[in-house]
Design a protein that fits this description.
Blueprint: H1 3-10, H2 35-46, H3 50-134, H4 149-175, H5 180-191, H6 201-215, H7 230-235, H8 241-254, H9 260-309, H10 312-317, H11 320-362, H12 364-372, H13 374-411, H14 413-418, H15 422-429
Length: 430
């Protein structure tokens, strides 16, 4: 290494470790030798801006309230859309299932009507045969005048019709893979009015509740064939009582349609919330920018006065780059800290409180589970911060060295060229 580089490295500024707040967290910045004194001076610069800082805090509270409130309102809109879509699917599914069941019922009614007609004819023939054997020679047209004939016909038809209906019920129950009690439930389902024919939303909800409660006791393949809304109809078979109550309430309110008007009102309210949140955030950032620039202006003014009062030995013992770094980079860091980090600290604290309150209103148990994970985040942050601190310190250190070297090479480039030190300068820069 050349003498020039050795001499340059010997002039590197020393950086202090330790001191400052949150030392145990390994805060990844260069720490002041006298942090408390430095903090008191900074607070002294901020004291004239107390009123502005109070306004910043107030606007931060308002901004956070709207920011936290926004996702909950957005969730309401999503729930309205989801519930409306599901309730609409349920109504469509019930309507489809009713259509399929009515087709089966139509075939059942036809079979029953034919069976009853055949049973009546057979019963009449049997009674006529009986009376023919008891009163031979009397024409059949005169049987109705014989005492007991009409009663016998009515009794025979009643017994025959009952047996015919029972046979038809048994036949259809076997065909549909049902027991007779299930087939009776099926007939009750078929007797319900078509859900979409009910104009009253309450009547639709009652039909939906009765249909789902009864259809779940029937074979699952009963409504599994065909239909545009077949999948929706099949979901009725697995709908829980809790979901059924929830969605029947939705049908009672919306009639089984997506409530676009209610969703539109919710989205309009959400838009107002985000506009207000952005407005308050803008005002907060604007006021804080004014505070930061005012404080930085006074800092630069006082630093300029301080530089003018320093003795020559200070400039002999410090590189130009280090001095420039203090005057530019460090004050810029203070400016960005006041303008961004301080407002972020305020809003983050407000948001943390706001989100916890909002979470507690939704589910205290889930809130507790989330809070229990916070120590893990803190531990990881401490670990990463401690590992990264030395790199941030080195970054600041080499930034000062780079500024000093660049300033010296530009101002003394004639001397560097005269003595042929271009390559040494490039190596030092690299």
């Amino acid at each position: 290494m050349s003498e020039k580089n050795k001499s340059f490295k010997s002039r590197r500024p020393k950086f202090q470790r330790g001191g400052g707040p949150a030392g145990s967290l390994g805060r990844p910045v260069e720490k002041a030798k006298d942090f408390k004194g430095t903090l008191r001076r900074l607070l002294g610069y901020l004291k004239p801006q107390t009123v502005s800082l109070v306004f910043v805090a107030i606007f931060a509270v308002f901004s956070t309230v709207f920011t936290v409130w926004g996702p909950k309102v957005s969730g309401v809109a999503i729930n309205q859309l989801t519930d409306g879509f599901i309730s609409k699917s349920i109504v469509n599914g019930i309507d489809t299932a009713q259509g399929q069941l009515k087709n089966v019922l139509s075939a059942y009614n036809d079979a029953q009507s034919n069976a009853v007609k055949a049973a009546d004819e057979k019963a009449k023939s049997a009674v006529d045969e009986l009376f023919r054997s008891k009163a031979p020679g009397i024409p059949e047209s005169a049987y109705s005048g014989i005492p007991g004939y009409d009663d016998a016909i009515a009794k025979a038809k009643g017994t025959a019709e009952a047996k015919a209906k029972e046979a038809v019920d048994q036949s259809f129950a076997e065909k549909l893979s049902m027991s007779l009690p299930q087939f009776e439930t099926f007939r009750k389902l078929c007797a319900l009015p078509q859900i979409k024919s009910a104009n009253n939303f309450g009547a639709r909800a009652d039909i939906a509740k009765s249909f789902v409660e009864n259809v779940q006791s029937l074979p699952k393949n009963l409504i599994s064939q065909g239909g545009e809304n077949n999948s929706s109809a099949n979901k009725l078979m697995t709908l829980s009582q809790g979901d059924l109550q929830k969605y029947t309430n939705d049908i009672r309110e919306t009639g089984g349609s997506i409530p676009f008007q209610a969703i539109g009102n919710t989205l309009l309210r959400l838009l107002v919330i985000y506009i207000l949140s952005s407005l308050f955030t803008f005002i907060m950032q604007y006021v804080m920018s004014t505070v930061a620039q005012t404080v930085v202006y006074h800092l630069r003014r006082d630093l300029d006065n301080k530089i003018a009062r320093l003795p020559l030995r200070y400039f002999d013992s410090h590189t130009n780059g280090e001095i420039l770094s203090r005057m530019t980079n460090d004050i810029d860091t203070i400016s960005s800290t006041l303008q961004q980090s301080l407002t972020q600290l305020i809003t983050s604290l407000m948001q943390l409180i706001g989100y916890i309150v909002m979470m507690l209103t939704i589910s205290p148990l889930l809130t507790l589970l989330v809070i229990l994970t916070l120590p893990l985040y803190v531990a990881l942050t401490m670990l990463i911060a401690k590992k990264s601190q030395k790199y941030y310190e080195a970054q600041q250190k080499y930034l000062g060295e780079l500024s000093g070297h660049t300033e010296e090479m530009f101002t003394g480039h004639k001397i560097v060229k005269a003595f042929g030190h271009e390559q040494d300068s490039i190596e030092t820069f690299e």
